[in-house]
Amino acid sequence: MPHRRQMSRAARAKEFAKHSQKSIADVAKSLAGRRTLKAGVANECAGLLAIYPGLPTRTPPNIQAILTLCLIPFTVLVRYLMIKQGISGRRMSALIVVIFGLVLSMIPIFVPNWRSHTPGINLSQISYNVSTIGSILWPCAFVSGYAFLALATVYCEDSLKAGESPMLYLTWMHVGTLLAGLVLLWFDLIPGFGLVRQCFIF
What we know:
Order of helices and strands: HHHHHH
Radius of gyration: 24 Å
Helix content: 55-70%
Keywords: Membrane, Transmembrane, Transmembrane helix
Strand content: under 5%
Transmembrane segments: 63-82, 94-115, 135-155, 167-187
Low-confidence stretches: 1-7, 121-129
Protein name: DgyrCDS1760
Organism: Dimorphilus gyrociliatus
């Protein structure tokens, strides 16, 4: 009897270890192939669009502070498209108010000489060396970074709600971010976008 009990315990332990390894492998494969890689790439793209278009000479700091609210409508939209999360009446009302405020805040971008009338900025210390088109495109590029950030946030939320291991998810997400960073770092060499003028300096 003791021998049989030991055999049964050993068999159960072996079976448990086998299923555990299979489960971890399946989760790792799922995360690496779908959510985690996409979340890492989206997170790195958000960082790229926050650094270069977010320079004070391209997007004014006071406009950046206002445009951070774009994360709210982007997150609601991505949730609706990806995980089919509905929007309640109260949430829709709040979203409309936020969008209305964002539209009003972006009007100065299209007004000639708007920077000379913008309070809170010492124009003698900050030089805006951008054209009229650049004064529109750079803030738009800065805003698009929050779309990628919303995408990464929803991927993270969806994965954690599905019961996946937070530690495993974060590990693979940072791996995906690192791999995406190795590709996106070359954007620093693009003339007019990056900050490096010569390759040997890079």
